[in-house]
Structure formats: C-alpha cells, structure tokens
Amino acid sequence: MSTPVKLAVLGDPLAFTLSPVLHRAGLETLGMQGGSEALRVPQSRLGATLARLAADGYRGVNLTHPHKRAVLEHLTETSDAARRAGSVNTVSFGPGLTRGDTTDGAGFIALLEHLGVGAAGANVVLLGAGGAARSLGLALLEAGAARVSAWARRPGEASAAWEEIAGAQVVGWDSEAGRAALAGAELVVNATPQTGPEVPCAIDLIPRGARVVDLVYGPELTPWVRTARAAGLEAVDGLGLLVFQAQRSLALWTGREVPLAPLAAAVGWPR
After folding, report:
1. Are the folds of 5-102+246-267 and 105-237 the same?
2. In the chain, domain spans
3. With contact defined as beta carbons under 8 Å apart, do 141 and 166 qualify?
C-alpha cells in the first residue's frame, strides 16, 4: 500500500483558507490516499516548521501571506519564475531538497483564459507590488500584455524588486501616474492581502468595460467584487485563482494532472 500523501498550507493569520479542501479533492480524484491541513505559522517559525514537515514526510505545502518572500532563505532550490518574482507559494519536499515554485502567474493566466480574457495587448493595473503582484506581472508580460502598472504605497522601495521585470512600471498608490494608468486599464487586479469593507481602490475610478479581479477570497464574495458587479463591471474574487493554483501545485507534488472540474466543485466555483 502506498504511503499517504501529506500536504498543508502555511500562513499567518490564515483566518480562512480552502487550500486543504482543494488538496484533498485533488488527491481523491487521483485515487491517492492522503490529507491536508491549515497551519498558522508565524514568520519567525517558518524555517523550523518547514524542516519539521520535511522530516515528518510531508510531500509539500502551499504558502500564503506573509511567507511568500520570507521562505526564499529556507530553500535549497528555487524555480526561475519564483526567483525572478521573489515569491514562492508552493514548496515541495524530497530527499535533501526543499524546492520553491510559484503557481500564481501560470494559474492567473489559466484563469483569464477560462474567463475568455486575453492577456495579449492588454493594459493591466495591479493594486499592490508585492510577491503575488510580481508573479502576475511576469506572467502577464510573458503572455503579451502591452503594459503592467503596479500601484505601490512605497514606490521607491518597490521599484528595486521590479527591476528584472522589463515592461512593468511601479507607480505611487493613487498618485497622478497611478490614476493615469488606471484610466487606460482593461484589467484591474487587487494583489494586496487587504480584507474587510475598505476597498483597495474606488470602483468609479475603473473604466467601464474593464475586468476586475480580486485575489482575496473568503466565505462570500469580497465587498470590492460585489461593488464592482453592482456598478456593471465583470468581476471575480480570488477563489478561481486558488483553484488554478492548486491544480498546478498538485501536479508538482504528484507528477499527475488533476482535472479542473472536481477541484472547482469542491469549493463551489464559479460563484
């Protein structure tokens, strides 16, 4: 009998996550025994926790805020995409190996394709300039986006982390340059971990006809997505991206392709 596959998702505070549900659904679909759990891990304990999980025979973990960048110092190997983005959301364990990958960018492009949104030639505004935003920016530009603008609260500090991403620009949060980029956007993405009733940017600043994606998800649609839909914009929350991310993470851990339908059904997406 094969050894059960042990998976997890790590974050802090990790108030709500459906990653274990997707992990378990994927394993069940593949006919593999195993399980997954959500572990709240403070950043100061990240390295020790990864070492413990590897020693305990875990196959891999997903990472969420605030670990995507901090984990880089605890890895023995990093994929090119994760290195360039400075962001890891998928860790795989093997004999003497702790490898970091990012499925954010590839998952996002797959989500857009599923929604019938073409990245080629698009003007995109990312609200946020952290690891998730950089992963998406890289993938969008490689998919042919015409322009990617990242809103940053500290643009001088963020610009250094974006130097390797040719074709992207970092602009001040809600600055004149930021609003100019937003005025011409065809795709607007909230790439901050911001939750709650406060919206990342006012919906009336977004051009009519632009597509809105909130990377945040919760038990219900986020207030920003609900407001965008009420204003007549096509908008989705981060649950769809989570499904496409999980599909790719599971493939890295198992070496097998997981069909999309059972993963989507497990978390009630689309909604």
Report:
1. yes
2. 5-102+246-267, 105-237
3. yes
In the DSSP assignment, the letter for residue 118 is: -
β-strand 60-63 against 77-78: which pairing, if any?
Answer: unpaired
Each residue's pLDDT tens digit, 256-269: 999 999 999 999 99
Can you give the pTM of this predicted structure? 0.94
Angle of CA points 43, 23, 83, to nearest 5°: 50
Catalytic residues, which ones? 68
What are 46's two structure tokens? 């990240």
CATH top class, domain 105-237? alpha beta
Amino acid at the residue 53: L
**CATH class in words for 5-102+246-267:** alpha beta
What DSSP assignment string belongs to 232-265?
T-EEE-THHHHHHHHHHHHHHHHSSPPPHHHHHH
What pLDDT digit, counting tens, does each position of 113-149 carry? 999 999 999 999 999 999 889 999 999 999 999 999 9
